[in-house]
Amino acid sequence: MIGAISVLLAHRPLAQIRAERINLVKAFTDVPKLQAFAKANGLTDEKGEVLFLSMPVPGFMEKLGNYQVLGVFGIHFNADARDAGFYASLPQLAGIRDFVCKNG
Questions:
Q1: pLDDT digits (tens, 9 = 90+) for 14-61
Q2: Which domains does the chain have, with CATH numbers?
Q3: Contact status, residue 8 vs residue 52, Cβ threshold 8 Å
């Protein structure tokens, strides 16, 4: 079971589906994967450090309305150079959470 979601903090959009102009927030369920993604994509500070925010899944789910107001379509999870990850629209996330909680 995923205990926390970590969101990469940066001063520019981190993911966008170009053809449809859809904004996605980059999020990771694994902090080392987040750190590797940030380093590979030049999203670290001068010292090579990564700024990110980790929050419990329930807190993350409660904040989804705030993302929608900012023009975010969905969340892009766990993508890196080796794995495309997956994305879901904000309205789909509650159903995904419920399915995972029920089925493990």
A1: 444 444 677 888 888 888 888 888 888 888 888 888 888 888 777 777
A2: 4-103 (3.40.1350)
A3: yes
Confidence of residue 11 (pLDDT cuts 50, 70, 90): very low
Q: How far apart are CA 72 and CA 63, in angstroms?
A: 12
Closest CA to 14 of 30, 28, 26: 26
Supply the pTM of this predicted model.
Answer: 0.70
Cβ neighbours of 102 (radius 10 Å): 7
Instruction: With CA atoms as reference, report the closest residue to 26 among 63, 92, 72, 76.
Output: 76
Phi, psi of 41 (to 5 degrees): -110, 15
Q: 28, 13, 33, 22: which is closest to 74 by C-alpha?
A: 22
